[in-house]
């Protein structure tokens, strides 16, 4: 993997660069050895920002912003890119599988058809009344993609969720 590490308004260290290379080398199983990776490190006001971009047949990009330190951003960016890679790979694999099944149509006995999915885990927890902003903060602190809460304004169950464009959405359930 070919690294281009750029720092703006932020003094980088050899240790940080070594950690970035060591962590991102874990992605070498997905890419060619000469795949370029561009890492931008910058400090905006009091936030540390890490932008990672991998240029292959598909561009994978992650941007992470924290107030803590740049080392925490490395792991978070790596996790985001791994999720993107696995999502891209599963889409690619499912398209190939559909094409394969079209060609093999009729050769698979009907009794070997996939079983429907079943519920294997149930979670129960107390819904705490809170504002949308508090729920958004809880979702971010937990590292989840959504968070269920009781809206303190109208006592209805609401869900805050991360959208693909990076914004946050709210689902309001009316009882």
Question: Mind explaining what this structure looks like?
Answer:
Helices cover 32% and strands 30% of the residues. The protein is flat and about 55 Å long. A hairpin with a 2-residue loop joins β2 and β3. The mean pLDDT is 84. The longest helix has 34 residues, at 70-103. The protein folds into 2 domains: 2-91, Double Stranded RNA Binding Domain (2-Layer Sandwich), CATH 3.30.160; 129-172, Sigma 54 modulation/S30EA ribosomal protein, C-terminal domain (SHC Adaptor Protein, 2-Layer Sandwich), CATH 3.30.505.50. It has 175 residues and is an alpha/beta fold. Strands 1-2-3-4 form a 4-stranded mixed sheet, with helices on one face. Strands 5-6-7-8 form a 4-stranded mixed sheet, covered by helices on one side. It is built from 3 helices and 8 strands, in the order βαβββαβαβββ. The relative contact order is 0.08.
Which strand order spans the largest sheet, edge to edge or round the barrel?
1-2-3-4
Number of domains: 2
Structural class: alpha/beta
> At the first level of CATH, what is the class of the largest domain?
Alpha Beta
> Can you count the helices?
3
Indicate the radius of gyration in whole angstroms. 22 Å
Terminal Cα separation, in Å?
53 Å
Note the beta-strand portion. 25-35%
Low-confidence stretches: none
Mean pLDDT: 84
Output the CATH homologous superfamily of the largest domain: Ribosome hibernation promotion factor-like
Return the CATH architecture of the largest domain: 2-Layer Sandwich
Tell the overall outline. flat
The name CATH uses for the topology of the largest domain is Double Stranded RNA Binding Domain
Q: Total strand count, please?
A: 8
Query: Helices and strands, in N-to-C order?
Result: EHEEEHEHEEE
User: How helix-rich are the residues, as a percent range?
Assistant: 25-40%
Largest sheet: 4 strands, mixed
């Amino acid at each position: 993997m070919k690294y281009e590490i750029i720092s703006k308004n932020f003094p980088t260290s050899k240790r940080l660069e070594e950690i970035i290379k060591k962590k991102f080398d874990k992605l070498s199983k997905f890419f060619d050895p000469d795949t370029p990776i561009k890492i931008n490190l910058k400090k905006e006001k009091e936030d540390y920002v890490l932008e990672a971009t991998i240029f292959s047949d598909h561009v994978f990009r992650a941007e992470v912003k924290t107030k803590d330190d740049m080392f925490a951003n490395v792991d978070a960016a790596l996790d985001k890119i791994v999720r993107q890679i696995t999502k891209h790979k599963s889409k690619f694999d499912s398209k190939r599988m559909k094409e394969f099944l079209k060609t093999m149509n009729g050769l698979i006995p009907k009794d070997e058809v996939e079983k429907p999915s079943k519920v294997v885990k149930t979670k129960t927890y107390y819904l705490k009344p809170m504002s949308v902003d508090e729920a958004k903060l809880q979702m971010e602190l937990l590292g989840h993609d959504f968070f269920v809460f009781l809206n303190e304004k109208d006592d209805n169950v609401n869900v805050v969720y991360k959208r693909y464009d990076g914004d946050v959405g709210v689902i309001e359930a009316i009882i």
